[in-house]
Amino acid sequence: MRRKNIVFSALSIGLLASATYAAPMTAAKLDSLNERLDSLEAYAGSTTVGKDDNPVAVSGDIAVRFKNFDYYEESSLQIDDRVRTRVEAALTLGVVVSPASFLTVFTNLYLPFDFSGYFANSNATDPNDGPFNNNERVLYLHSSDYYGLRISENMLAGVDMRTGSFGATLLAGGVIWKSGSPLTLWERETMPRFISQYELFEDEKVVSTYYKEKGFKPVKEGGRAFWTNRSFGGLFLDIHTLPWNLKAQAMLSQPMDMDVGARDGLRMLGSQVGELEMTGTYDFRGQVVHGRLAKEKIKFLDADMTLGANYMGVIYEKDQIYEPDYQVHPVVTDGEGNPAISDYHVASVDLKGNLTPKFYLMTDVALSWDDSTIFKDASENLKEAGSKQKYEKEYNRTETSKPAVGVYVKAQDKHLIPITLEAVYLQKDFFSPYGMTDPSRFRSWRQDEWYAGAGTFRYGPNMVGGNLKFEPDFNRGRAHFQYGIHRQLEEGDDIVNYKYNLNGRAMWESSNSWTRHKSMFNSDSGNARSAARQLSRVAGGPGQSRLENQEGGVRGGTWELWDSFVPFESVEDAKAGNIPQHTKWNSTLAFDLGYDIGHWFHTDRNIMLQLYTALSGVSTSFSPLGYSEDQKDMLLVNWYVQSEPAIAITPTIHGVLIAGFETFRAEDAYIMRSMSTALTSNSGAYQAPYSKGGTYYEKAPLNVLQTSLGFGLDWDFADRAGLHFRYKWMTSSDETVPENDWKGHYIQAETKVWF
Asked: What is the pTM for the complete model shown?
């Protein structure tokens, strides 16, 4: 005790002495210290590296997903897909290194893996049976599902440099998300993002925010769910800070989803076109070049506007003409049947900005043209010389097409209620491979088709029209109204394309052919059976070049499933392939309704009643609204209804119910059957003149009804960790082709943890 008292006394004396000395010292130096405050602050700032003074930061997420599809009443649609179970996982990493305050280096890594089961006995193909199953029970087409990209930016590296008047970001790697202007480089999202579909790319958010953004007060534009970017692999330079409020962008990539040449080895897709994202291991013989120069803060009527100039080009290597695949399926020919390699160009000028705080305007005016290198067909001369080469080694001539015009206008006004007007004018030959006129999720290439929901939900060439949205919100809900009317500028083939909105996503995922980023796959391609998916209506017949492939049948995009048919005028025309031509119209009326009834039960928890419905009609004459296939000149009527009541059970547990139906009705549709099924036909129409080879044709009006019923649950079971579950019972009924009827279950569960 005595020793402690001595130590305490010594410390006290020392502190008092120090304080006595420091008092005059502080008074003497106070003024000089105040003068140095600015320089001290700058010095302290220079020692700060990165966020929170961390020179290296790592973040990401890990997700494990389970999916099960069970068609307990199957049709030929599920001949090899009666039951499928998928268990997969993915680790996403983002690493950021900041060696200096003005420099940041980063990389994104996406590492998918799965828990596939392999069996050496009959369990490998039970209950599914296919010619290429090869003792793999879970994943049928593993390589297609795991080439690389899903939605995340996998295997990407970048560096960002910022100074006072200059700043630039350079990206290189597998997937670079990019947008430019609507008619050159843009993704257009038009359908609501429903709660029931928990996307693979959902970013970090608690379930209350997830339900708010998709149901309680849905986000209709902006954000990750509705972003306008497309993905490319290669190099991208974004000079985001320049003097005079200028910005510049440049990109060099490869035309992965427009590969016109042969594919071999790992690239072999059996002549299927596809949107395969870049993974760094492919050599597609061509370049995608994009550039944009924009000036911001242009004063116009007291508003700050942005003016931009854009160019997008797809340029191919010409020696693809000698590849065997091109000899069998020339992508482009001139009017005399000679093959050609065509490069595609589109240039535009866009203007956008708020004229007033409550009025936004965007315009884009574009020109598109082709540069074609045409080769001479010299098969006869070369055949005599004993060569298998079909074309001359030197091209015959080059041609540049007449430019085609595209115009897009979008105006939004929020003075009274939010109103949005969109208008387009797109000439028949307008072709922008990555603009909003050609969604890469279902590439139409240069097909002469027309769509249910054309203009309102999907733009394409040969179109003029407008789309009007009223989106009022009130205290406890919303009542959003949308109407669009569009027509073709010139006559076109009456090939009508329609999308399965209600169950298409689950139908496509349950297929052995499903791939996330290879659009235009025949939905039976993974089974190598031409009729495995369903008995399809005749939609033009095979044999066209790849750019104009009108083969018809069910086809998958990325998140959806498409079908098509031709409204032939007679069974004789169906047999002969005489496709009628008209200037077609499409009208679409859609409602998005929601109301919170939580106060009815005296609770502050959200209980949201929701209903979305859309009615579309395709006709050969003006019709303000298509509601019945019996209307004059009506080719197709599509009615889609989906209801998703949602409830906030607790702040961390939310649930949703799922109910809906969709119908497609068309009077003039035809089906082609094989002679082996002729005796089962009710019409007996296999007799001449309806027969052709080993097949016969008969009229089969389109009258398809699909339904779904299910529920979902989302639970934040820990901080930065969630569980998401979905179940749907689905049915499909085809009145005139009952072979296509089916019923099935869809189960999906995912747990995701962010770090």
From this structure: 0.82
**DSSP type of residue 677:** G
DSSP 369-418: EEEEEEEEE-HHHHHHTT----EEEEEEEEEEPPPEEEEEEEEEE-SSS-
Hey, how many other C-beta atoms are within 10 angstroms of the C-beta on 32? 8
Tell me the C-alpha distance between 754 and 61, whole Å: 4
CA distance 84 to 138: 7
**Confidence at residue 223, expressed as pLDDT on a 0 to 100 scale:** 59
Closest by alpha carbon to 594, among 194, 221, 188, 227? 194
* Residue type, position 460, single letter: G
547 within 8 A of 332, measured Cβ to Cβ = yes
DSSP string, 526-561: GGT-TTSS--PBP-S-S-S-GGG----S-EE-SS-E
CB 513 within 8 A of CB 141: yes
> What is residue 571's three-state secondary structure?
helix
Q: Read out DSSP for 308-345?
A: EEEEEEEEE-GGGGGSHHHHHS-SEE-TTS-EEEEEEE
| Helix intervals (H) in 205-358 | 207-211, 324-328
Answer yes or no: are the C-beta atoms of 471 and 480 closer than 8 Å.
yes
B/e letters for 309-327, b = 16+ CB within 10 Å, e = fewer, are ebbbbbebebebbbeebbb
Angle at 224 between CA 215 and CA 298, to 5 degrees: 115
Q: In a 10 Å sphere around its CB, with 0-12 CB exposed, 13-18 middle and 19+ buried, how is residue 651 labelled? A: exposed
Name the token pair of 43: 């010095």
Least confident of 174-178, 333-337, 338-342: 333-337
Q: Looking at residue 651, what DSSP letter applies?
A: T
Distance CA 465, CA 488 (A): 9
Give the rounded distance of the alpha carbon of 717 from its chain centre: 31
More confident residue, 645 or 164: 645
